[in-house]
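Recap slide: ATP-dependent zinc metalloprotease FtsH, sequence and predicted structure.
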Amino acid sequence: MKLSWKNLLLWSLPIIIITFFIWQGLFTPITDERNNIANSRMTYGRFLEYIDMGWVKKVDIYDNGHTAIIEAIGPELGNRIQKIRVELPANASELISKLKKNNVDLDAHPIKNTAAIWSLLGNLLFPLILIVGLIFLFRRSNNNTGGPGQAMSFGKSKALFQMEAKTGIVFDDVAGIDEAKEEFEEIVTFLKKPEYFTNVGAKIPKGVLLVGPPGTGKTLLAKAIAGEADVPFFSISGSEFVEMFVGVGASRVRDLFKKAKENAPCIIFIDEIDAVGRQRGTGIGGGNDEREQTLNQLLTEMDGFEGNTGIIVIAATNRADILDSALLRPGRFDRQVMVNIPDFKGRLSILEVHARNKKINKNVSLKIIARRTPGFSGADLANLLNEAAILAARKRKESITLKEIDNAIDRIIAGMEGTPLLDSKSKRLIAYHEIGHAIVGTLLKDHENVQKVTLIPRGQARGLTWFTPSEDQSLISRAQIKAKIMGALGGRAAEEIVFGNAEITTGASNDLQQVTSMARQMVTRFGMSNIGPLSLENEDSNPFLGRGMANTNEYSDEIAIKIDEQIFTIIKECHKKTLEIIKNNRVIIDKLVDVLIEKETIDGNEFRSIISQYTIIPNKT
């Protein structure tokens, strides 16, 4: 890790302070002449004798008269002058007079008081280091996104301002949402050549709301606008407006629109606007909480007392049901563009876009992939090709083949592939369960076709039966729902017929949940029961409560009893018909189970080919 001098100073500051005080307390230097004295010593009595004999030439007194360094000469000292240390007693008043009497050179050295100097330096140096450290930390926090330094500028907008779009994405890179592209191509033309519209009295729309499920390309479409329109582009997330302090979000909205007015015409893109634009009056804080104040300021800026000519606000959300009604009215968001899950043509276009930088085998048809992936969003398709590329690279292949595509689809839908089961009673039971699903779905006219049956575990499932979903799932008939119920009950019915009631397993738990849910919707939402064409349960719940908390019954207890009876009747009737299908085709089921245990996976075409040898498969259109 590379450390700058500022970071080095920050980490070394505590060490410097601690070292300073240790050095001050333990290693205060003492510099005087005593450091140069030899180790020779003399008693005080012998010192007086030397004075009387005239052998002492000079005396230096230290430590307030407690220590003397003498220069003496004598036989004991080799008849040469040497320095000797003498410890003086407390009461040596006769010493001075004796030294003067014998004409001895006398000098006194007072104590050098360095403690006051070091104390003064310590009192000044520590506050100075502390102040410098605080200034450095304050400046450092100003350069980051958070910290105390941000307190002076937390009301400023965090919009990503681009005078020229540099996203590198244009409309040709966005596929599968042609209707939405047409809307935005018109807006881009309005920004580039407004005279085409103003000549006939048309006004530029103030706001466009993109509504659709996650992964359908709402943010990608906004980036494409930045690549097409030669105007300034502001991008911000709705969550960046909301802070803990009331008024901060409103200040950021004002700052954002102030910058936009200075650079009009321009585009403002607000991603996930439901974070700030949800219905007012639903918060605990009433009308004074931060989110509502921010929304009020946003409403005022979009269509308030001052016009915002040339500013187009584009917002994206997947929860349009919780947005405030004042935000959705004309004059604020004039247009609401639905960005739905792509159809076959849209999926094919999306695959062509994401396949540009992938090495796909020439035998792989993108049309086949598009037909096998109904319900996939643009993000799902991009992830599909990426997963297939990873699998191909893992196997050291030079291109992506259909096998990697199939494995990627299975992995996205059901999870990672597990270890195949060993040949045992459990494996045979699972095989009968999956074949039960597949044969019931194949022999019912209104059920979807079988795509694949496998015993290879994926995720939590020990075996799987794949059906090819129909393209149009928006309208489903009563016969189709009942066929789905019977197909889901096929696994449990096969266990009952082959192994008996005592050997049925918990493998049908998820199937039974789906069966109960579909039967309840037939009775309470779709009016497909003997109760009549009544909608007894509303799909839309209160978005500000937990799911299911606001689902209060809007019918009497008598109707509730009838609902339970009808649900039971529908499931019982479907279960009875499913058991009949399993009994009448027991020979085919045994044959299919043997093939499945041997191969572990049966393709849909092979599955139907085996069944056609024993019975007639209904024509499904």
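The first strand starts at residue 41 and ends at 42.
The CA atoms of residues 439 and 589 lie 8 Å apart.
(End of recap.)
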